[in-house]
Amino acid sequence: MKMYGNWRSAAAFRVRIALNLKGIAYEEIFLDLDAGDQFKPDFLAINPQGAVPALFDGEGAPLTQSLAILDYLEETHPEVPLLPAGPRARARVRSLAQVVACDTHPLYVPRVRNFLMENYGLPRERMLEFLRNAFTTGLRILEKRLSTEAGTGRFCEGDAVSHADLCLISLWIGTGIFGIDTEPYPTVKRIADAMLALDAVARAHPLRQPGAPAP
Amino acid sequence: MKMYGNWRSAAAFRVRIALNLKGIAYEEIFLDLDAGDQFKPDFLAINPQGAVPALFDGEGAPLTQSLAILDYLEETHPEVPLLPAGPRARARVRSLAQVVACDTHPLYVPRVRNFLMENYGLPRERMLEFLRNAFTTGLRILEKRLSTEAGTGRFCEGDAVSHADLCLISLWIGTGIFGIDTEPYPTVKRIADAMLALDAVARAHPLRQPGAPAP
Fold it and tell me: Which residues belong to any copy of the GST C-terminal domain (chains A, B) (predicted)?
């Protein structure tokens, strides 16, 4: 497979982990988001949304939106499974994943940050209050649910990695970048640490991708 | 089934349509979001996120997040199907649905609007610039994709209603409430009109739910 991505993209990170865990060979094409590559005609013809990831599986149209791609990979490459078997457990995994991918991550992407600065004239430091509110709201909900719901195990749902863990770690990575205090979220931290210990996650890590700053 | 919802919630609207199309009997319990019912301990025990919808299917934990609920309903009540059969078509439906449910709707929910007004001291009219930007970005992407991608038919994917259409109409309904110019989005409008003509959608319409203002 071939994926347009960017080392910094939380959504591309999720997809890389799934590809690694399922043992699917892929090539990642680095899109320079700072240079605005995502808004150039060549890429807009691939994804009119001007966003990564965009995944090509052989011929055929590009696949976009990280959660849609994760479900596609699950349906076309069921091994190793990243969703549990029962409908209720699957619904819980998807709900946890969507706390991140719907209600948290879209609030802190560059286009939102830029709109706040450009439209309202906010300096970067004040704009970041919006971003930090998104992070802490998402982390608080995850912590509350993961620390109280019966389904939680070594990972978000039992002892197997699922879409919820891919989303969790894609959020967690941002806490370092944006200086978010992680002390109030011990259960999220425990699961993030378990994820980071996996080779498939380590290889997918943002800082190990093309274009990332040197360590 | 029993659903905690609110007439105004775009996410609850999506779930109501699915329940109606699948012929699943349900009772909706009105949660007064203006009175802050979603943040009272009784409801936070159901959904720590303080958000609707929350669906109960018999005994067992509440189901939350509208897209997760739609997939749960699809898995437990496959008739009438609201996802196409092939993985690529399913991925396209999910991607279109997520343009709305991940990248558009979460940007204009009350908690975001309130944060902008309270934290930055923006008057309502200036806050609405953020909301209108979210709407027009989402609508522009949908229009571009639906008017150019081969999969589009009478509905978003071919001639059968899918999750993408449920999300599309849940966004469309907001254009009237927030005074968004819909003229640049003729393909979105055509599909929205086809949706509104369905009895299952008409019965799920926000203005026909408990708590809605009189026409």
Answer: 86-214
